[in-house]
Write a structure and sequence with these properties.
By secondary structure, the protein is α+β, with helices and mostly antiparallel strands. 33% of the residues lie in helices and 16% in strands. The protein contains seven helices and seven strands, in the order βααβααααβββαββ. Helix 5 packs across helix 6 (136-146). The longest helix is centred in the middle third of the chain and has 12 residues, at 68-79. The radius of gyration is 21 Å and the shape is elongated.
Length: 196
């Protein structure tokens, strides 16, 4: 929200609805609770000044469960290298008839890729090593993604938003699961997972 939300940058914007997934912050901004943390006071003062830029502005709480799109955008943003000097980048989102993972699986024959999609995350969690030839941006992305995964008994699991563990599977396992038409596949930020 820093500079892109200011009316001076977008004079046609007179009203703004802001949603946040921290009940504490929303209540502090709305004046229901007082900001006591010394480190947060400058941000609160900045936000109060920014509020003056709009005729109408509201702050509402939205749980993370209802905010999955923002989480997906944050993951996408961490994976992209935006060129210097680019202030805005247009993103088109298309709604599909079926989940994205269904579009990635060829039902005619199982995939032949020997390298699972999650191998870099698993190697990082096991040995704190990055793939050869990876960039600093790749390192940051792997670290950020790895925070959402855990290895138990040598098997990689992704933590869901409610801390349920989803077993990560490779393309062959996903194909087998899809072939059974059990509906046991769910999408993760970088691939497929088998739900319990």
């Amino acid at each position: 929200m820093h500079h892109q939300s200011k009316r001076s940058h977008h004079p046609q914007c007179e009203g703004l609805r802001v949603f946040g997934d921290s009940q504490l912050i929303i209540n502090q901004v709305n004046g229901d609770w007082k900001t006591k943390d010394e480190r947060l006071i400058p941000y609160h003062v900045y936000l109060e000044n920014l509020i003056e830029e709009f005729k109408e502005i509201t702050f509402s709480y939205m749980s993370r469960v209802k905010n999955q799109f923002v989480e997906a955008l944050a993951t996408l943003a961490s994976m992209l290298e935006i060129p210097k000097g680019v202030a805005e980048w247009e993103l088109t989102v298309e709604l599909q008839e079926e989940p994205a993972f269904c579009l990635q699986i060829d039902e005619a024959e199982p995939p032949s890729n020997d390298r699972p999609w999650y191998i870099d995350i698993k190697k990082y969690l096991e040995h704190q090593k990055y793939p050869e030839g990876s960039t600093l941006t790749d390192h940051c992305t792997i670290q950020r993604l790895a925070a959402q995964f855990v290895i138990t008994g040598g098997i990689l699991y992704k933590r869901s938003f409610n801390q349920v563990l989803l077993r990560c599977v490779d393309e062959t396992e996903a194909f087998q699961c899809r072939s059974l038409e059990t509906g046991c596949i769910s999408a993760t930020s970088k691939g497929l997972a088998l739900t319990s």
